[in-house]
Write the structure tokens for this entry.
Amino acid sequence: MSEKLNRFIRTITLFELLKGLALTGSVWVKSIVTPKAVLVTRQYPEEKRPSFPAFKGHHGFLKDEDGSLKCVGCGICAAACPANAIRIETEEGLQHEKVVTGYEIDAFRCIYCGLCEESCPKDAIVLTQLFELADYENRERYIWKMDRLLAVGEKRPLFRDEIDL
Amino acid sequence: MIVKVLTRNFDKPDSHTLAVYEAGGGYRTLRKVLESWTPEQVVEEVKASNLRGRGGAGFPTAIKWGFVPKDSPKPKYICVNADEGEPGTFKDRHIMEQDPHLMVEGTILSAYAIGVQTAYIYIRGEFVLAGERTEAAIAEAYAKGYLGENILGSSYSLDIHVHYGAGSYICGEETALIESIEGKKGWPRVKPPFPAVEGLFGCPTVVNNVETLANVPLILDKGAAWFAGLGTEKSGGTKLFTISGHVNRPGLYELPMGTPLLEMIEEQAGGVTGGKKIKAVIPGGASCPVLAAHELDIKMDFNTLMAAGSMLGSGGVIVLAEGTSMLAALLNLERFFAHESCGQCTPCREGTRWIVQILERIERGEGTAGDPDTLIDIAEHMAGRTVCPLGEAAAGPVKSFVKKFRDEFLPGPGPDAGPSGTEHHPQVAGQDG
Amino acid sequence: MSGNNLISVTVNDKVYQVPAGLSIIQAADRIGVCIPRFCYLEKLSPLGGCRMCLITVQGIPKLQTACTTPAKDGMVVVTESEEIDKARKATLELQLAQHPLDCFHCDKATRCDLQDLTYLFGDIQHRYDFPRKDLPTLYDNPLIERNLGRCVHCERCVRVCEEIQGADAISATRRGRPTEMREVPGGGECQHCGHCVDVCPVGANLDRLFSHRGRPFQMEEGLSLCPYCGCGCTLSLNTREGRIMRVWPRGDEGVNHGSLCARGRFGWGFVNHPERLARPRIKKNGQLVEVDWEEALLFTATRLEKIIREHGPQSVGGLGSARATDEANYLFQRFMRCVIGNNNIDSSARLGYTAGLTGRLGVAGDVREATLDDVRRAARLLVIGADPVETNPILGLAMKAAIRKGATVVVADPRTTLTSRWASQHFRIRPGSEVPLILALARLLLNERELSAFKDADLLARIALRSEELASLAGMLEGDAAEQTVVLAGRGVTQAPYGASAVAALLRIVAKRGASYLLTVDRNNERGSCEAGVLPDRLPGLAPLSDRERFEKVWGQKVPEQPGLSAYEMLQAARDGKQKAFYIMGENPVDDFPDTRYVEEALSSAEFLVVQDLFMTPTAVMADVILPSASFAEKAGQFTNLEGRVQPYTAVIPPVGQARPDARILVELSRKMGKGFPHKNIVEVREEMNNLVPMKESQRQLACNGLSHAVPGPEVQWGPVEDSDFPYLLLTTASLYRNGAESNLAVGLQKGQERAALRLHPADAQGLGVSDGDSVMVTSKTGEIQVSVRLDDEIAPDTLQLAEGFSDANPKTLFGHEIDPVTRTPMARYVQVKMRKL
């Protein structure tokens, strides 16, 4: 047959399409019949692996043994942050001490470099292993305030379902 | 050999009164000088006598007088430094208590030489008897016409005011003394300008020690050559040595310049208590570097002591016997300096406190091997870097004690360790800041 | 020491030419060689105590302090060597040894000299290992924290308080290491100027309003001008996200050369105050309701047009602003003249400044006006009826600087003021006799025929001076030193009857003797508002109405020919039913004008009241429309200070809420009324204004317009009349802590002084049975106020003194509303009162 006729028949019968489908189909069948142990794709979220200990995930704010914030409001983290993600508010307390009244991390700005953790002289902020940061709701949810940071700092969850944020 | 030149009246009953002073020939010199000497002649005579300041610095007196600008339109002042605060020194007090007129006559003659119309005597606040007797002597002098307008019918007038200190060693430093008379707190001034050019109330001022001025009537009476001959080549006259410490007969001894130190201790002061050997001697008051046992064969005058790395200072000889803890002695001295530091300049204010803290730590047995070097380092930063000589005064003992008795400042009990047993100065930082 | 006199100094092997008379550190600063220091500051006397500036001078064995050693011709100086380096590091080691090292929460961090020097030197040893002693932090002062532990004993605070501010509030107490720089009982009273905070190299003296509220790198800085008194000081505002956090001076800049007073430094709290008006309001059914700008402007325009249609253009009056910028005032008067169509324009400058202006306008030729620097250099200062230390504190500092250089200051004033306490001589003249005093001086020094009607003895008796005292006052203006004599006059003269005549006479004396003068100015733009044309009888640049053609050309509108009503004439017209509406911009007549009840009644007689302001002042409460305006920090413009110096500045923060700059509101309102101004921005306003009026020369353009100043005859009643029902005489003063309604809302100034204090002599207090702090009721013929008492044995007996400006006790309530026929200024210097204990 001529080239033209050949091409015409292939087009009419959707030959290329069927060829592609056949490949897909055969892989699909293979995946059903192959035992799970041989498959390489991890079926997240049914199967989860925790991140490694040095992973820089969700920030956590820490407290001392007596329950007070380790943070003294020095602002070094905010100064060190290359993305301007940290906003600190401080005030004078009743004993004329420096009191941290507000601490916010803009999760969208943050690049998870960990310079805040490195620079903190009081080891008050750490980046934990929590890597599941996605949220459904609105943008305001992504300004992480002190209460959230303290909760993460206390629990040090590996996965999101360990903590109610 | 004891010589009774300055102290010639001391043993007489009522020696502090005008009557006794005049009976011994007092104010005769004043009359003679006002009648027939010019001020310049007085200065020349004192210069030829090799009189050097007796307050501690040993500066030639006539040269100090010469710094006063002759043609200044401002009034000139003389301040008599009777703030005797140097630990181990108690000579000026005896002059004021037992022969105040000698000081007064010396002041008038010196004021005449410089061209001063108003003199101040700055007396340490604690010297109650000395102050009373000085004031009484001045009143007697006014009454007899030795002070006030047209003294003894001459054209020279002089007023003397007595001003009392309020418990501060630093006010013995000449510019701090001037500040105190001006009613301000006793913080020494940065020099230059020197008091001779800009002193009390911004006017040319000479500050002289009591003993220095007490020598002047005798010089003008018996002549410069006589006075110079009493002493050594570079230091004329006698010196009032106040010997204290571990000696059998502590006290005031007038001896010619150049008297050997050991002779002073053995003969005049009756030797060391308990017959012990001498461990160290502080030759001229607390701020002078200490002399160790092998350095004591020395004649006492300004130049010889300077050559030996110490100072004649005020002549306050403190004898430390074998068995004395040098650590305790130094701690005692440094507590004093830290307490008396005025606080104006960083090296002295912080350095003295730190030195005391280190010494206290060594005393508690918690010293470290690096402490002696640290002490010397701090002392070296204080010496020559401060506003006034208190810095040097506090640094000198540290350097000399630590260098010459180093093992007493290392960890572990030293050969003669023991508590300093000194009065506690609560203001010195360490505990209470 | 002339600047031409140069000497040769070798520094680090290079030869430099420097002016003679400098110390080594000053020479080094000028040639750019860095010598570290703690205690040295150019404006203070050198101390030589910190020992950081030690350098080597060839020929002198010991290291010398560069700050105390004069640089001499041929001197060879070395500022960098191993020995010097060792000394510097040792000094730093010692300073760090006693410093608490709490940089994490110290507010000075990143602006701290100790930090900077430590970083600069790097390899300093830190052998001190004893526990650092914690000295206490003192919180007795409500505005300044004194952290004694951080003190490096540089003594700058002690020196600045003594040498620049002259308050002597801080002393170095105790001795040695425990020395504490602190306020002591029996020492001087802190005036909260904040100099000690500025000069402190570390965090030992700190601003408590700011305490712990942020880090320097979290804030932005923008320059602005102080909104309070007439000095016009340059401020640096530290802001964060549109809010002011702190105020301090910027280096040596501005007329204030780095100094501030309590108001400028601590009085910024009204700007971001929660009570700031954020939205326009209209009175509906007796209640002020928030609306949007469109509605407010339209409503205002419609009502004004209606009133003009029904009652004529003369029925609207405008009070422009002694606070607003020159441009806003310029637009205001253009609005009143072109859009409304009258000359009924005035401001609170009428309370004194305009009288001085009227006086000046009546004197032909040049009269030298002093600048603040002239005052600093003056050899003699004559102060009549003025209290510069409290009305214009930076002018007061200039006066104090002159005194330190040996100037003689003579004060003629019936009150005991902060200024009179500084004077070499204080003549306590009879209250109300400032004008007779000047006339007496004029008679002595000018020999003018008109004054011959006065008999010497009469005049002297009225003033309560002896002839030799008058002669010594006159002597201040005689002789060769007259060129360095500055005459300061204030409201004692301008608020008196015939005040303008007195000012004119005074200026004639000043001109004849070659001296110079300065009038104190209470509000930041009193002078600028007048020079911008906010006057019923003057156009911008103080041009007379007869000169209106060139303005009409630019404005495209006719300017009414007849002079308009001044402030009190407007108020009277309202009471008489002739004035129907008021447009009040940036003024608060209910609080600031004498005779509170009169003012309130006048304003409530008007049909329509528009108030444009920052807060709900007592005047705003009465308004039918409130237009929120932007504060000084939120807009651009220029102010003219008491020297006549024009200072433009820009906005630092965005307007609070929906507030708008005054100039913008006026432009939009003009558009709503159909005669819109063409300006698109403030620069265009300024250009138009400057083209019509070169402000700086407005003084020189003054033509003597033949104002013949009426000379009062001897029959004029000067001073109070004895009245047994009202036996005490109340004199008003100013206060360092108040200036206008907004100052009452600034928390910093409330902390400085919370409430008004009536000063009286202890003998009078005893007679009444009151002691310090008790409350009394003070009553005059016009009104009464309740106030607490403060005893002061320097006050004259039977006299009371009360500072203006405190919202809890307003002396203006006690005054009447009588005005001078020429200047139309209310006579409000003194009032007779009675008192009873509460």
Remarks:
- The first strand of chain C starts at residue 6 and ends at 11.
- Chain C has five domains: 6-80, 126-270, 281-352+525-700, 355-519, 728-837.
- Residues 293-311 of chain C form the longest helix (19 residues).
